[in-house]
Design brief:
71% of the residues lie in helices and 0% in strands. With 367 residues, the chain is an all-alpha fold. The longest helix is centred in the last third of the chain and has 34 residues.
Length: 367
């Protein structure tokens, strides 16, 4: 029997290094808990809309670059559906157990988050900040990159068959997933590639040989750290300017929502005044005063408030805002004309004002 056959398996070699896998299980648990919390708040089981993902911290240029850089990290725990979650957690369980034992808890976490953050940063650059992205796949690709570095470095200490199986299986998984990413729309391949390359460099930088007496050449660690630092600096320098600020879009959506609530109350007041006028017992002057106070003045205030919002055609809410301004202007002018017609007892003007109010169309809120 050859000496090679007597070499312990990788599992046996790593058994003494970390008795139980903890961080991998914790990461999987956090991802699952976040997904369940999203479901409880209205997210879809099979697919969640971009709006839900953004509310929970997805990576998106106008939001991330508007001072919310924490989204590069929070996006790592968001998934767009149960299939997305299941595939990522299976890959993390399969590769994370080995890599955590190879590198240790702290280094494994460093590889995981460095890869995920770098992957999301590359996604921001590659998609010009226009993609809403989330998921743990960038970090998981980094785990597989570190796995390949360790296996290649320790290949002489492993049984050839075990090395070939693990090494080529990791390469096959990574390559196949990236190829599918180019073929299937909706997959953030930039995050995958960025995470994988970061995992390779981080794995070399943080490598721990199986034999504690061995040392990784400092030149290799310096090369890996320098390359990684230069790559991150290059990515940061290439981040495109966002088309708009997410805080402006958020403010616009808040104002739109507030107006729609106010408009419902104004429309109800208008209907009440008209019904009182039909029943009689109220003078035209009194009806005109009530219309001015309860309708015209309130639409005027709403028009001024909507007009003060930032004017940026790139805002997703910009068409809705423009349509709302036009709607408010129509309703305000119709109410003013109705009050004037009532004071002048001009039935033609009254009918015209009511018809103008009826023809006004309120736009739907933005998605």
């Amino acid at each position: 029997m050859s000496d090679r056959v007597s070499i312990p398996s990788l599992h046996e070699l790593l058994q003494q290094r970390v008795p139980r896998v903890r961080v991998t299980q914790l990461l999987i648990g956090v991802n699952v808990v976040v997904f369940l919390a999203m479901l409880a708040s209205g997210a879809g089981l099979w697919h969640s809309s971009n709006g839900v993902q953004l509310a929970w911290g997805a990576n998106f240029g106008p939001a991330t670059q508007d001072g919310q850089w924490w989204r590069l990290g929070s996006a790592l725990f968001l998934h767009f559906g149960v299939v997305h979650l299941a595939l990522n957690m299976w890959a993390l369980w399969d590769g994370g157990q080995l890599v955590e034992r190879m590198y240790g808890h702290a280094r494994f976490l460093a590889i995981y988050f460095a890869s995920g953050l770098a992957g999301n940063l590359l996604s921001l650059v590659a998609h010009d900040g226009n993609a809403v992205s989330g998921g743990a796949s960038g970090a998981i690709f980094g785990v597989y990159g570190a796995l390949l570095i360790f296996l290649w470095r320790e290949r002489s200490n492993l049984h050839p068959q075990e090395f070939r199986w693990l090494f080529w299986a990791a390469i096959g998984f990574s390559a196949a997933t990236i190829v599918f990413g180019f073929l299937i729309t909706g997959i953030d391949n930039a995050a995958h590639i960025g995470g994988f390359l970061t995992g390779l460099l981080s794995g070399l930088l943080l490598l721990r040989p199986l034999d504690a007496a061995q040392r990784v050449p400092m030149r290799g660690r310096l090369l890996a750290s320098g390359t990684l630092a230069l790559a991150i600096a290059a990515l940061i320098s290439q981040i495109p300017a966002p088309a708009y600020r997410w805080s402006d879009e958020t403010l616009a959506r808040q104002e739109i929502g507030q107006f729609l609530r106010d408009d419902a109350a104004i429309s109800q007041a208008w209907q009440t005044i008209l019904e009182d006028g039909k029943r009689g017992g109220t003078s035209f002057d009194e009806l005109a005063g009530r219309i001015d106070a309860a309708i015209g003045d309130r639409y005027e205030a709403s028009f001024e408030q909507l007009s003060q919002l930032p004017i940026n055609p790139a805002l997703p809410s910009s068409p809705t805002l423009e349509a709302l301004r036009h709607y408010v202007e129509q309703r305000r002018d119709a109410s003013r004309s109705l009050a004037e017609g009532l004071r002048a007892n001009d039935r033609a003007q009254i009918r015209d004002a009511l018809e103008r109010a009826r023809r006004s169309r309120k736009p739907a809120p933005p998605d």
